[in-house]
Specification:
By secondary structure, the chain is mostly helical. The protein is 66% helix and 9% strand. It binds zinc ion. Zinc ion (ZN) binds next to helix 1 and helix 4. The site of zinc ion (ZN) has 4 residues, from helix 1 and helix 4.
């Protein structure tokens, strides 16, 4: 596990297999879902995540529901969005 967001706190694994920047933005995405659910829903709607993307993500996280996989896909994209927009 690279990181986690629980009860308003983000945790980062010092031995994460992804960069800490990636993990930070990924966990920020979970924070955003919990604290700004309307905005997160707008992001989900705009992303138009395909069934193929969900199936691909399910290979690495088979325990998650499709809605949870959509959340993970958005959170995975947060680092790239932050980089492209200069956040
Ligand atoms: Zn996640």
């Amino acid at each position: 596990m690279n990181g986690a967001h629980r009860s308003g706190i983000s945790y980062y694994n010092i031995d994460a297999t992804f960069s800490h920047e990636f993990v930070y933005w990924h966990e920020f995405g979970h924070w955003l879902k919990n604290n700004q659910p309307e905005l997160f829903q707008e992001m989900l709607d705009a992303a138009e995540i395909t069934d193929e993307q969900i199936a691909e993500k399910k290979k690495s996280r088979p325990e998650l529901t499709d809605d949870e996989l959509r959340e993970e896909i958005i959170c995975d994209a947060m680092s790239g969005v932050a980089r492209r927009t200069g956040l």
